[in-house]
Amino acid sequence: MKIGVVGAGNMGGLHVSLFKNRTDVEFVGVTDIDLDRCNKFSEIHGGKAYKNVQEMIQTGGAEIVFVTIPNTKHKQVILDGLREGAVVFGEKPFVTSIADADEIMTELAGKQNRLYNGFNRRFAPVYAKAKELVQQGFQVRSANIIMNDGDMTSPPWVTNTALTGGFLYDTTIHMFDMVRFLVGEIAEVRCIAQQCHYPLQDNFSFIFTTTSGQSIVMSSNGHASWAYPSERIQLWGDHATIVTEELDNVMHCGSNKSTLEITDVKNLDRNMKWGYAQMHEDFLGAIAANQPFSITPEDAYKSVLITESCYISAANGGKAIQL
């Protein structure tokens, strides 16, 4: 499998470092709007520097394209890759508007195994364990979730909505996907937003209702400090609880049990703990075996729909928005 990367930054480097552990992958090169950065990337990671996606596919022979550029720049690169016949892996978020999402879905026209979205947390051991418990019969009645950023000046581009599309598109969108992954489809969103510390809306409170009637309370802000945990999911069942803390551990207390089972992975290799290595295996393994992708374009689309609905709700004083 010949792979090219769009974006000569940290995430591009992370993905290429994982390619090197596989014998069935050839890294052909990278393209970026900054040619100097492209050349430096190639010096470190190998491969060639290409002027654009089309050249990387047509000349370099890339069959798979990893998109790791700023959020708001995803749409055109994804379309370019698809139109050149490549399979596209897009880092989250998919795109940063429903209009852009609609354009890509139209291009896909229902074709399968052409687009995969990088929701790595689905594969992080703490969330994979929580999902396993749910599949084994843990009935989620309600949930409480936090996803905070301690300092939105690290890195400074986080406050640049021209690059991120807004606070919710940068990291919080992972938790929107986690609601669907662990609890169920979201049917209604309510959101209140404030601008507290940074020059954009940086404080959000949500109430989600699923199609099965579960209620999820969530908060996400960019001014919380780095106090542990900045990421936490609590699932409540029938006298039973599942609690995750960061990507470090998951606690489970079964129905009417007094004992607490703890799965601790805090010392695991980072790419394993964050699910990146497992996500690569899932994505590239599906291509090699010609199996359906576990993360579909519909999953990517719904994450954008939820995010945009939250912004619409916030702009209307917390009005309920039906999905």
Strand residue content: 15-25%
What quaternary form is this?
A: single chain
Largest sheet: 9 strands, mixed
H-E order: EHEHEHEHEHEHEHHEEEEEEEHHHE
Order of strands, main sheet, comes to: 14-13-12-11-7-10-9-8-15
Q: What is the terminal separation in angstroms?
A: 38 Å
Structural class: alpha/beta
Helix content: 25-40%
Question: Ranges with pLDDT <50 over ≥5 residues?
Answer: none
> Quick one: overall form?
globular
Mean pLDDT across every amino acid position: 95
Overall number of strands: 15
Radius of gyration: 20 Å
- State the helix count: 11
Overview of the structural elements:
It is a single chain. This protein is α/β, with parallel strands linked by helices and 323 residues long. Helix content is 36%, strand content 24%. The chain is built from eleven helices and 15 strands. The chain has helices spanning 10-19, 35-45, 53-58, 74-83, 98-108, 125-135, 161-164, 167-182, 270-273, 276-289, 297-315; strands at 2-6, 26-31, 48-50, 64-67, 87-91, 115-118, 142-147, 186-194, 203-210, 215-221, 231-236, 241-245, 249-253, 261-264, 321-322. Strands 14-13-12-11-7-10-9-8-15 form a nine-stranded mixed sheet. Helix 4 runs parallel beside helix 5 and helix 8 (167-182) packs across helix 11. The longest helix has 19 residues, at 297-315. The mean pLDDT is 95.
Element layout with pairings:
Layout: E1 2-6, H1 10-19, E2 26-31, H2 35-45, E3 48-50, H3 53-58, E4 64-67, H4 74-83, E5 87-91, H5 98-108, E6 115-118, H6 125-135, E7 142-147, H7 161-164, H8 167-182, E8 186-194, E9 203-210, E10 215-221, E11 231-236, E12 241-245, E13 249-253, E14 261-264, H9 270-273, H10 276-289, H11 297-315, E15 321-322
Parallel strand pairs: 1-2, 1-4, 2-3, 4-5, 5-6, 7-10
Antiparallel strand pairs: 7-11, 8-9, 8-15, 9-10, 11-12, 12-13, 13-14
Helix pairs in contact: 4-5, 5-11, 8-11
